[in-house]
Amino acid sequence: MNSRTILRTTQTISGQPIALPQKSPEVVVSILEIEPGAKLPPHQHPFARYGYILSGTLSVTNLETRKVMTFQSGAFIIESMAQWHSGTNPGMEPLQILILDQVEEGMENIILGG
Q: What are the pLDDT digits (tens) for 83-97?
């Protein structure tokens, strides 16, 4: 058996402590695809969101801190919570992200706006 740690952290990509739902936790798993050059609208997450970059490149701009971070295939990220941000696929190939959300049962984990 062989195991390799990809990430071990207690913080989101913006330095916040990881917080879990306070009641009735539910795990939601999905795959997000973003075409080359496409940009996601400003949004935030009220609950923990984890992402593993299956393929492509993701650029995340925190609209509150103005910090830009770029992640390549194989990276695991913990998105910021309750901070406005947007994502872009700056690459030439489709971006695929395996998303794991921890939410309160029945809730969504994305708020559009900003």
A: 999 999 999 999 999
**CB–CB of 85/63 below 8 Å?**
yes
- Assess if CATH 2.60.120.10 describes domain 25-106: yes
- How many angstroms separate the CA atoms of 13 and 113, rounded? 20
* Residue-wise pLDDT tens digits, 42-79: 999 999 999 999 999 999 999 999 999 999 999 999 99
pTM here is 0.91
Would strands 111-112 and 43-44 be described as parallel, antiparallel, or unpaired? Answer: antiparallel
> What is the 3-state composition of the chain as percent helix, strand, coil, each rounded to the nearest 5?
0, 45, 55
